Amino acid sequence: MVAALVADGLGGHGAAFYLLLAAIVVTAHAALDAYGSLVELPGTEPGVGVARFRVALAVVALALALVAAVARAPVVAGETVPALGLSAVVGALALLGLKGALNLSAGRAPARAGPRPRRSLKASASRPLPERS
User: How many Å apart are CA 56 and CA 99, to the nearest integer?
Assistant: First the structure.
């Protein structure tokens, strides 16, 4: 999103639009990752409230990124970007920055390293399957 703001400042509104489209994908991934972390927590975990807040920040940032892309879609070369488009990008950046700061302060890594551990199939293999009638 920062690159989209820089491209707008240099007059490359078309490039800024496509950079925002790429930012939507990344922001959607951040929202889904935050939601996945929330779903994995037990309901009695003390960090559930913080996880819900992370999800809310990511979802609102995604909505603002979508609004920014929609607001600047009809912009033709030489025209100015609507104020709504710039404000939405700045708001989305602020929310994502707040989410990142929250992740760092809670000691949570922003991205997972490697695949998640899988459940063992040995325990379920020792039980016989129920017979169908």
Answer: 9
- The answer as to whether 133 is a domain residue is no
Question: Residue 3 belongs to what H/E stretch?
Answer: helix 2-9
User: 12-34 pLDDT, tens per residue?
Assistant: 888 888 999 999 999 999 999 99
pTM for the predicted model, two decimal places: 0.71
Residue with tokens 């925002």: 20
The answer to whether the beta carbons of residues 95 and 64 sit under 8 Å apart is yes
Question: 56 is in which domain, residue-wise?
Answer: 2-113
Counting Cα atoms < 13 Å in the Cβ hemisphere of 90 gives: 7
For the chain, what is the domain count?
A: 1
Tokens of 116: 């998640």
Is 130 within the bounds of a domain?
Answer: no
Is residue 83 within a helix (H) or strand (E), and if so which, with residue range?
A: helix 83-105
